[in-house]
Amino acid sequence: MTVFVPNADAAPAVVNGVYLPLMFISGAFFPLASGSVLAKISSYFPIRPFVLASFNVLNPHNPTAAINSAWLENLAIWFAVALLFAIRRFSWLPRRRA
Hints:
Blueprint: H1 11-25, H2 37-42, H3 47-58, H4 69-89
Helix pairs in contact: 3-4
């Protein structure tokens, strides 16, 4: 997100403007039916698999606390893409704005 943030004062607004809607559609605040359109859309983002994995591990009614491999694959792909983007775009030196 640092690529899109012009200064430290704008950071909370930019990050929350992306993160909170993703959390909302991913079912972090309320349960989603697994076959719903919203659940299918949010399964492509990294928050939904993380929420499902967390709930599955912490569910006291689930005798096996196994994590679905598809959730881990989704998180690994997002991690790899974010890492590549960060390696290419991140700089400790401030950028000059025109």
